[in-house]
Protein 1
Amino acid sequence: MKRIHVACLLLVVTCSCTTEPPLGFKQLAPSETGILFSNPLLETPELNILTYLYYYNGGGVIIADFNQDALPDIYFGGNQSEDALYINQGNMSFKEVSANAGISNSDGWTTGTAHVDINGDGLQDIYICKASGYRGL
């Protein structure tokens, strides 16, 4: 029984020793990607985690091909900031197009985002869930 454990340990150690670079994410600067979105939260005595349970839940992110160019675009939902739509220009470069797309979503608190072809036209539609009118949201 001990021989099997030692053999397994040697196999794991041998397979773990590699000279190939690790797979994973690489951080890119906003100057490289064009993405400048931020979702800062400014707590007040009236609005914080104790008065609004979902304060730190975030607004959501959608990655989908909204303009049908076979490149994934990004929609960011903001809580105390405006939502933003970024169109993929290729090569990990994005262009913010919220105003051109008619997105004016600065009221309320975005609590979630999703995409679906809701009307069956073959295009991805953006669904935004909002909280509004609660403690100044």
Protein 2
Amino acid sequence: MLRPGFMDEALAQARRAAARDETPVGAVIVKDGRVVAAAGNETRALNDPTAHAEMLAIRRACATLGDERLAGCDLYVTLEPCAMCAGAISFARIRRLYYGAADPKGGGVEHGGRFFAQPTCHHAPEVYPAIAESEAAQILRGFFAGKRR
């Protein structure tokens, strides 16, 4: 079930990432109506190309819950996950994915490889796109507009 407050927290994580000069993507993992993990991108800070918000949130949720599987958990993320993150979402057995802005160039859910639609995908979450889409897209546009000045 969609809870708008959780996407608000993901948007706050995206803004914090932008303030750190990271690509502004935020993610929150929820179980039983409570946030168990939250993160923003940290690829630059950690010198790690896998430190996407989704990956960090999944790692933190697994550590918090003491399990490699996140069955019964929902992920709220401000940008359509890339193929790497979609793979991690599948392997973690995330129940539902709510995302904000579509990513025609780098997305892996409804664009690109469409990871969850592949016959080799072992688990596909329920996917709900375009949640707070305009706000998520505006955060990204504002960040990259500032880079082009």
Protein 3
Amino acid sequence: MSGATDWLGPMRAALDEARAALGTGDVPIGAVVLDPDGTVIGTGRNVRERDGDPTGHAEVVALRAAATARGEWRLAGCTLVVTLEPCTMCAGAAVLSRVERVVFGAWDEKAGAVGSLWDVVRDRRLNHRPEVVAGILAEESAALLDSFFTSQRG
């Protein structure tokens, strides 16, 4: 997978996960992890509200599921696809899990750590730097978040 159109299917799967988070009152962010062949080996959605877990971000949930599926924490050759630019915790988890690339939809100007506010994944002081593909179905990802926060404000 190399072109932007190659990431549409996986991003749609991540958006499905994001929509499922709405059922528990969680911020609608979804993620999937693909193995080197492009097969989904982990899925996740925000579960902070549902589980009362501050680390219950979609990316962490998906990375944990992928590590379980692989039987190891190293996710070399894998791709993390997520609807919103990862925060510092999730960008760090992507680096530490050794994913090959991070693909995301909408930019997060307030907390993004893959180029917006910080750029954790490209920090040369770290031992691993995944490739970044940004802006896949960004408008759809942003619209889902905007709708959620508009409804929260009443």
Protein 4
Amino acid sequence: MTQAIPARQLLEVAYDEAMHGLAEGGIPIGAALFAADGTLLGRGHNRRVQSGDPSIHAETDAFRAAGRRRDYGSTIMVTTLSPCWYCSGLVRQFGIGTVVIGESQTFHGGHDWLAENGVEIVLLEDDRCVEMMTSFITDHPALWHEDIGVADEVDVP
């Protein structure tokens, strides 16, 4: 990865977003989109619960906050959790060049597929991210199953 700031330092922004989402009563997944030189372009967190909008995942929130660009090839998407298929599709659709992932132990999304298709993947397996998601899944299994699309476990209020 060729950015000015180490991946673990970039993860701090996404982790902060995840904690913000958790404090709001949402799913603790955070993300940020950076330029190759480490300039923050946009940050966000999963707002599915807070906004009642199932399309506002952390990566889409950060992507929207970054605004329109002509080229995303040199950008870096940083997320606290392996991106789901929806968010992996966003990365592929817009040609984001690198994805930094906080952890994939609690959820293994589409990052292997991204790597197979030329996206640089940096998997950190950060203990704080693992603990945050493990605790959330234990405390809120129905909400977690809703987020990952396990329909038979969903109890939407």
